[in-house]
Every structure is written in structure tokens, then in C-alpha cells.
Amino acid sequence: MFNPLWLLLGVLIAVYFSTGKAARFTGYLATGLAALCVLALVSHAVMVSRQANLAIILLALPAALVIAWITWTPRATNRAR
């Protein structure tokens, strides 16, 4: 669930909000990482995972879902011309 791709996502989110570039890749990466969090929760629900990290998954899941939602919503650009 927590892997180095989160570091890449942090950089891409900064680039996305400052310049508007890499929007599609940022959205795909954020959605993929949110899907990994959901997969971790499902693996606990069906008793595939025997690790005692359910509290960490439940802490990270809302943040991952919100980041994925924010990166897929259209960004308003208010630039003065």
C-alpha cells in the first residue's frame, strides 16, 4: 500500500497544481494508488491478509480516495489576460 510511487505522486501533484502539466498521468497514478488501498482493504475483508495493519489502511484510504478525486476533477484556470 505504501510504496515509492507515493513520492512520485507528491511531486506530480505539485507540478499539476503549479503548472497544469502531467494532469493525465497524475490522475492515473492517483487512481492506481487508491485502487491499491481499496485492494488492501478487500484483502483484509476476505481474510486473505493476516497482517495487523487494518488501522493504517483505514487511515490512508480516505486520503488516497480524495487525492484521486481531486486529480480527476477539472481544474479551473483563472489567468488574467
Can you give me a brief rundown of this structure?
The chain is mainly alpha-helical. 70% of the residues lie in helices and 0% in strands. The chain is built from three helices and no strands.
Protein model, in words:
This protein is an all-alpha fold. The protein has one domain (5-72). Helices cover 70% and strands 0% of the residues. It has helices at residues 5-19, 23-45, 54-72. Helix 1 (5-19) runs antiparallel to helix 2 and helix 2 (23-45) runs antiparallel to helix 3. The radius of gyration is 15 Å and the shape is elongated. The model has no long low-confidence stretch (mean pLDDT 87).
Domain unit count: 1
How far from one another are the termini?
Answer: 43 Å
Task: Please compute the radius of gyration using only Cα atoms.
Answer: 15 Å
Helix content: over 70%
Question: Which properties best describe this structure?
Answer:
81 residues; mainly alpha; 3 helices; 70% helix
Q: What is the topological layout?
A:
Blueprint lengths: L4 H15 L3 H23 L8 H19 L9
Helix pairs in contact: 1-2, 2-3
